[in-house]
Amino acid sequence: MMHPFACVLIALLATATATAQREGGRGGQGGDGAGRGGNRPAAGSPANPAPNDPAAGNPAQGAPARGASAQGADVGKAKDAPPPAPADPEVAKAALRDFHAGWAKASLPLKVAAVEKLAAVGGEDVAKALAAKLTDPNALVRQSIAEALGRLRQPKAVGDLGDALAREIDDKDGSLPAIQAMCTALGAIGDAKAVPALTHGVFAGNDRAENWLAIVEARLAAVGQIKDKASVDALIDLLGKVPTTGGRRATGGGRGGGGRVQRLVENPLRKLTRENHADADAWRDWWKTARAKFTF
To answer: Which of 117, 118, 192, 243 has the fewest CB atoms within 10 Å, i.e. the most exposed one?
Structure first.
């Protein structure tokens, strides 16, 4: 009798092929960085960046990072699509058993296909099982899991996603597409518990690295999807921490300084509050008065 996981692998081959073709057709979005066993192009990790300026809306051709409007659109799509309804408990139990049976020895395409198949089952237990695999050594697998968790929108996954995001950012070989997928998932879930993971140390690191802005953009765009006063608190706090000189953090000219990083903070703040104020002091003054009675 054929091993149960072998049956699953055979059934997933067609899905794996389709998934691989889909990933290959993403063009500038792909790239898993310098290592971790990925089979995508090397460009696109924080350690090996590709030219990109998301705040200016001008990513270079072939760069894995996307502009602010594209990142926001991804988060919006994840929130608009309804999560799959949880399957019958017995069906879910069987799916989870098959998923775990041969994960450690599965190839990259089969892991990606297995993630997609399990995510279609839906439910909290599925989300927890997928989130536990965010430690997988391959960046494409981590990205696929994050994308699936964004579709499932289960709050139980927030802690694992936040931890995975911190690891990905801190890793010199971290994957930009995986970081973006994790941020998008946290924004789509919309739980205020994700705000610290998305904002803590957001301006840290080498701000002259080409992917620095893309990572800041992904994190702050996700905060803009979380309709909670904690999001507004954090964004207004960040407005006062954007340096006025040096590197890519310079606020430049325009109304209220209005430089690239400043805009990355202000855009989600305006989206959340439907307000527009001249500078950090004006935002703080308004929020001090409006916070108690503010509704989203």
So the answer is: 243
For each of the domains in the chain, give its residue range(s) and CATH number, in order of start.
Answer: 66-194 (1.25.10.10)
Reading the block at residue 5, the tokens are 């996981």
Q: Which amino acid is at 71?
A: Q
Alpha helices, DSSP H only, in 62-211? Answer: 68-80, 89-101, 108-119, 124-131, 139-152, 158-170, 176-189, 195-199
Beta bridge partners of 45: 48
d(CA 28, CA 58): 13
Three-state DSSP state, 118: helix
Q: Using an 8 Å Cβ cutoff, are 119 and 151 in contact? A: yes
Output the pTM of the full model: 0.73
Q: What is the pLDDT of residues 222-262, one digit of tens each?
A: 999 999 999 999 999 999 998 555 555 544 444 333 488 99
Q: Environment class of residue 22 by beta-carbon count within 10 Å: exposed (0-12), middle (13-18) or buried (19+)?
A: exposed
Whether the Cβ atoms of residue 188 and residue 78 lie closer than 8 Å to each other: yes
CB 248 within 8 A of CB 208: yes
Residues in a beta bridge with 31: none
Q: How far is CA 201 from CA 147, 196, 198, 204, 242, in A?
A: 23, 9, 9, 5, 12
Give the pLDDT of residue 66.
40
